[in-house]
């Protein structure tokens, strides 16, 4: 039997890189495309590439993720996150491939006080969140075999993320201020990739919330990063209103993993355990 072919967009990003590595380790025929190799906003190019490769599964991790910049560049955010996704969706459906679309906790407004399950009402409060939700709608409208994965606070070895930013700032400053009134779920990219790999072995399609277990504030997350890395630095709590940014963030975006539980998949390990492994495996530059 020939190897399954899997195409990954956003293959140079923090999730895409881990996804490609995992799939290659599992001996799949993997086609990873970064922005330079595949312009997802070009429908003809997308259709040509997907028709030619004819993958069994398409994992669509490419996105416009500049949350603050999106507020002043809504056309760019929607071009990539909505219509770029539409292009991937239509081309994937045409050849009968399964589709994985990576979405975000930013589709919620953050006014809840209990974790959001997959059936909770969406109400994004930023351009980025609205553009990612528009992508979800295109997936639902035009594809028949899809997994929509909402995740949050992703970090890993590749790309820019909060953990790497904190460790870098600690080398430059003796004191940091981090918001303590935004609550969410950190997600280790390696764990996320592993869970997606399990999903695509099945036909249990639908929306899935995938993040590490537990929750914390950015302040608590920062303090734990420094504890695990044995970095001595003063971390002070502050409020979101003290540091206004162009895009509003949901104040509470803890994800409930109902779909994983009800479909017989194991929930991810606790975020502290995952962070401990990340710090240990990749080390900290002094």
TrEMBL record:
One BP term from GO: dTDP-rhamnose biosynthetic process
Keyword hit for Oxidoreductase: yes
GO cellular component, one term: cytosol
Pfam families from the UniProt entry: RmlD_sub_bind
Record keywords, A-Z: NADP, Oxidoreductase
UniProt entry tagged with the keyword Nucleotidyltransferase: no
Uppermost EC category: oxidoreductase
Top-level taxon: Bacteria
GO MF annotation terms: dTDP-4-dehydrorhamnose reductase activity
Pathway: Carbohydrate biosynthesis; dTDP-L-rhamnose biosynthesis
Residues in coiled coil: none
Domain RmlD-like substrate binding: 5-282
Enzyme Commission code: 1.1.1.133
Entries under NCBIfam families matching the protein: rmlD
Family classification: Belongs to the dTDP-4-dehydrorhamnose reductase family.
Job of this protein: Catalyzes the reduction of dTDP-6-deoxy-L-lyxo-4-hexulose to yield dTDP-L-rhamnose.
Protein name from the UniProt record: dTDP-4-dehydrorhamnose reductase
Organism in which the protein naturally occurs: Thermolongibacillus altinsuensis
């Amino acid at each position: 039997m020939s190897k399954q072919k899997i195409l990954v967009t956003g293959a140079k990003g923090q999730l895409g890189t881990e996804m490609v590595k995992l799939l290659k380790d599992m001996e799949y025929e993997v086609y990873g495309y970064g922005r330079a190799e595949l312009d997802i906003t070009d429908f003809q190019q997308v259709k040509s590439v997907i028709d030619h490769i004819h993958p069994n599964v398409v994992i669509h991790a490419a996105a416009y993720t500049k949350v603050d910049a999106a507020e002043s560049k809504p056309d760019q955010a929607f071009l990539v996150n909505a219509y770029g996704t539409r292009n991937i969706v239509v081309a994937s459906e045409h050849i009968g491939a399964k589709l994985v679309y990576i979405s975000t906790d930013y589709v919620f407004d953050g006014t809840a006080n209990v974790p959001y399950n997959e059936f909770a009402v969406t109400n994004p409060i930023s351009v980025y969140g609205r553009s990612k939700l528009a992508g979800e709608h295109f997936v639902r409208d035009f594809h028949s075999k899809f997994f929509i994965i909402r995740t949050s606070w992703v970090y890993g070895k590749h790309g820019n993320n909060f953990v790497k930013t904190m460790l870098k700032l600690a080398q430059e400053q003796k004191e940091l201020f981090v918001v303590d009134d935004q609550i969410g779920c950190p997600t280790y990219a390696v764990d996320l990739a592993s869970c997606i790999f399990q999903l695509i072995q099945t036909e249990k399609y639908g929306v899935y919330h995938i993040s590490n277990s537990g929750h914390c504030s950015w302040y608590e997350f920062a303090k734990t990063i420094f504890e695990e890395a044995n970095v001595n630095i003063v971390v002070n709590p502050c409020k979101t209103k003290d540091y206004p940014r162009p895009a509003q963030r949901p104040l509470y975006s803890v994800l409930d993993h109902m779909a994983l539980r009800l479909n017989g998949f194991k929930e991810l390990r606790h975020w502290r355990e995952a962070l401990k492994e990340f710090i240990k495996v990749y080390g900290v530059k002094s």
